[in-house]
Design goal:
- The complex is a heterodimer of chains A (112) and B (112).
- Chain A has 112 residues and is mostly beta strands.
- In chain A, strand 8 and strand 9 form a beta hairpin.
- Chain B has 112 residues and is mainly beta.
- In chain B, a hairpin with a 5-residue loop joins strand 4 and strand 5.
- The chains are: A mainly beta (112), B mainly beta (112).
- The interface between A and B is medium-sized, with 16 and 18 residues.
Chain lengths: 112, 112
């Protein structure tokens, strides 16, 4: 069975500093992995996805994630945080029959 | 990528009543998914809806409480029946396209 674990429920950074949101996954086969962002009172937006091509995936708004099979991780990073990055971030794995399994989410706060 | 129009965007309902949420897609899709996001929580899959067949419900969700219709390849509805305050959540529909998964903007339901 597939599952994802987001290791931090809250992450706080200062504007201009790096962002690291951690995600570990469990899958019995090569997974498809996604990061979604949800701004307050807004819908879900796809940041990036991994589907067994390049292990370093670049997404929108300067975010990227690296698929590490040996560590079963898919951490999300950004070199320099912006105030507009404050939101809830979900790590997601695609499971059986295209069902998405969501992590519990990480709330990112960005301080000026 | 496909665009989903979901409505209503929000509603406040009396307990014991029912609410039907609609999702209209601008292209034909085989499978649609319905999710629930309880306050402060992650997303949980309610059911998968294929056109022309009964929806498949996840553990903890039943058809009598969450009947789903899928009359054609561009439309689906989810009804939340006999509502109680515990049903207060955001409900989202989703589909899988070529670029990944697309989500409706969500229906924020408050049951009083």
């Amino acid at each position: 069975a597939q599952s994802v674990t987001q290791l931090d429920s809250h992450v706080s950074v200062s504007e201009g500093t790096p962002v690291l949101l951690r995600c570990n996954y469990s899958s019995s086969y090569s997974p498809s992995l996604f990061w979604y962002v949800q701004h307050p009172n807004k819908g879900l937006q796809l940041l990036l996805k991994y589907t067994s091509a390049a292990t370093l995936v670049k997404g929108i708004n300067g975010f990227e994630a690296e698929f590490k099979k040996s560590e079963t991780s898919f951490h999300l990073t950004k070199p320099s945080a912006h105030m507009s990055d404050a939101a809830e971030y979900f790590c997601v794995v695609s499971g059986y029959a295209d069902k998405l399994i969501f992590g519990t989410g990480t709330r990112l706060q960005v301080f000026p | 990528s496909a665009v989903i129009s979901q409505k209503p965007s929000r509603d406040i309902c009396q307990r014991g009543t029912s609410l039907t949420i609609q999702c209209q897609v601008d292209s034909q899709v085989t499978m649609m998914f319905w999710y629930r996001q309880q306050p402060g929580q992650s997303l949980t899959l309610i059911a998968t809806a294929n056109q022309g067949s009964e929806a498949t419900y996840e553990s903890g969700f039943v058809i009598d409480k969450f009947p789903i219709s899928r009359p054609n390849l561009t439309f689906s509805t989810l009804t939340v029946s006999n509502m109680s305050p515990e049903d207060s959540s955001i409900y989202l529909c989703s589909l899988r396209g070529l670029d990944g998964y697309t989500f409706g903007s969500g229906t924020r339901l408050t049951v009083v």
